[in-house]
Write a structure and sequence with these properties.
The complex is a heterodimer.
Chain A lengths: L1 H18 L6 H40 L6 H39 L2 H7 L4 H39 L4 H10 L3 H27 L5 H34 L1
Chain B lengths: L11 E12 L2 E12 L3 E5 L6 H8 L7 E6 L2 E2 L5 H8 L2 E4 L11 H12 L5 H14 L15 H13 L5 E5 L7 H18 L2 E6 L2 H7 L2 E6 L2 E6 L1 H5 L7 H9 L1
Helix pairs in contact in B: 3-4, 3-5, 5-6, 6-7
Classes of the chains: A mainly alpha, B alpha/beta.
């Protein structure tokens, strides 16, 4: 346990050292950003949209009891922006991207492709790990904002089916409920989630043991550990944000 | 089949002295000494698990020895910093037992990869020319746009060799180049190893337990027994012995 934590600690130090050491892999980072976004986009769109519909549908009766259905866009905005969008995006990415990174690097390790890269005078850590971790760190905040937007569309669809409502008024009410602190907190959370998902996937893949069993284990661990850490970070981030709010 | 003779060059390109390496409590290398001379093909023979692959991984800096020294092209490998090690690796080609082709890339991308990474001043045309030259050298021009999964085991080995040749290394390290291949493909790989030696003027270490390969490609043979090099010389010199550790090896291969 402690030995594993020590290894993770060394892995993180190595990441920061390599991330700031030339040559920088700009092209590969862009390619990985595209991969991360492309892999998650369909599922995120569907999940975000359905979440928006369901959340609006479930909240509406409770608000109606108090004659406060006009607060629905604000409620949806706060719930989506503060927690649902970052968390949903992170969990979907942990499942789709984290497992894919773990399996890809694990498979490369098992078939000596990482060693082949090393003997071709290419630093595999810089080329494979740094690029993927940076890609998830950059892409997660973008995907989070996208999830919030799609969720908003879902919520609006639900509202507009039961009563006539203007989209611009819905959006305005949605935006008025969000503070600058919400934007900063959600962005920072998404960055941390992205970093965690990329790092866990790369660590598991890069350190997978030999054999196909090791590849499966790396992919599985990337998802399980990634999701667990995302939940832990969400709890800590919520506590810190509330400290700033009060 | 004619055995190859020793080369006359006495310039050492690799010098291994008293190298020891253990994995846990199991000591694989117990004071191994070996020299590779410029322009020669040196075959390292030994049973599975005797540390043959470990030895070439130490030479290329993929593993570090516990004791002893490894000098490659005049440089002590474990004293090099990361940048110096990368520079040295440009001069060493490593052909893996599993071929280790990047399976998400086409053959062209596999071959381009070392050049794009390390020779940034080359134009696209020069890279394309280099790719075509090495593919022609291994006789697989038709595979240019194929994926590694579409190739046979022998073709993968040849592409693996082509990928190392593209950087025009001075030293080639072959890890079990004929393992798992049919006899005819083995002969083709042996021929290719000899062609590489002649065309690219490389000095090579070939790890194998295939005596046909050893006889056909080796200027010298070194036998790794009990973690040390016990016998070295031409094929005939090495196997002209009653040593009970060597003769079963020869007899087994002969029966095979």
């Amino acid at each position: 346990m402690f030995l594993e934590l020590y290894r993770v600690h060394l892995f993180i130090i190595k990441f920061f050292k390599e991330a700031f050491t030339p040559p920088f892999e700009g092209k590969e980072i862009l390619k990985q950003c595209y991969q991360v976004g492309y892999k998650s986009l369909a599922l995120i769109s569907l999940t975000g949209f359905i979440t928006g519909i369901v959340f609006a549908k479930q909240s509406r009766p409770s608000l109606a009891e108090f004659g406060a259905t006009s607060w629905l866009p604000s409620l949806v905005g706060i719930a989506l922006f503060r927690t649902l969008a970052p968390l949903l995006t992170a969990l979907i990415s942990a499942g789709k991207v984290g497992s894919s990174i773990g399996a890809e690097l694990g498979s490369m390790k098992v078939t000596e492709q990482i060693e082949a890269m090393e003997v071709s005078a290419t630093n595999p850590f810089s080329y494979l790990v740094v690029t993927r971790v940076l890609a998830t760190t950059i892409t997660l905040p973008i995907l989070t904002f996208y999830t919030a937007f799609v969720g908003l569309l879902g919520a609006f669809l639900n509202v507009t089916l039961s009563e006539s409502s203007s989209f611009s008024a819905f959006v305005q009410s949605f935006l008025e409920s969000i503070t600058f602190l919400d934007v900063i907190a959600s962005t920072l959370k998404a960055i941390i989630f992205g970093f965690t998902i990329g790092l866990v996937g790369c660590y598991q893949g890069f350190n997978s043991s030999k054999g196909t069993e090791g590849v499966g284990k790396a992919a599985n661990s990337a998802v399980v550990i990634g999701m667990f850490l995302v939940f832990m970070e969400e709890v800590i981030a919520t506590q810190i944000t509330f400290m700033f709010r009060t | 089949m004619e055995t190859k003779s020793k080369t006359t060059n006495t310039e050492k390109v690799i010098s291994i002295r008293n190298v020891e390496k253990s994995f846990g409590e199991y000591q694989v290398l117990k004071g191994a000494d070996l020299d590779l001379y410029k322009g020669e093909n040196l075959v390292v023979l030994g049973r599975s698990g005797t540390g043959k692959s470990v030895l070439i991984k130490i030479i290329s800096g993929l593993l570090t020895q516990d004791a002893g020294s490894v000098t490659v092209l005049g440089k002590e490998v474990n004293e090099l910093n990361a940048k110096e090690l990368l520079e040295l690796r440009l001069r060493i080609g490593f052909s893996f037992q599993s071929s280790a082709l990047y399976d998400s890339m086409t053959i062209k991308q596999n071959l381009e990869f070392p050049l794009i990474r390390n020779k940034k001043n080359l134009s696209k045309g020069e890279i394309d020319n280099a790719v075509e030259t090495v593919l022609d050298a291994v006789g697989l021009m038709q595979t240019l746009n194929q994926m590694p999964s579409e190739l046979s085991g022998g073709q993968k080995k040849r592409i693996g060799i082509a990928r190392t040749l593209i950087l025009q290394p001075e030293i080639m390290l072959y890890d079990e180049p004929t393992a798992g291949l049919d006899p005819i493909t083995c002969l083709e790989i042996n021929r290719l190893i000899n062609e590489v030696q002649e065309r690219y003027k490389t000095s090579s270490i070939i790890i194998t337990h295939d005596l046909t390969c050893a006889k056909e490609v080796g200027n010298r043979i070194a036998m790794l027994l009990d973690g040390q090099f016990q016998r070295a010389g031409t094929f005939d010199e090495v196997f002209d012995t009653d040593d009970q550790r060597v003769t079963p090896f020869f007899e087994y291969n002969f029966i095979q």
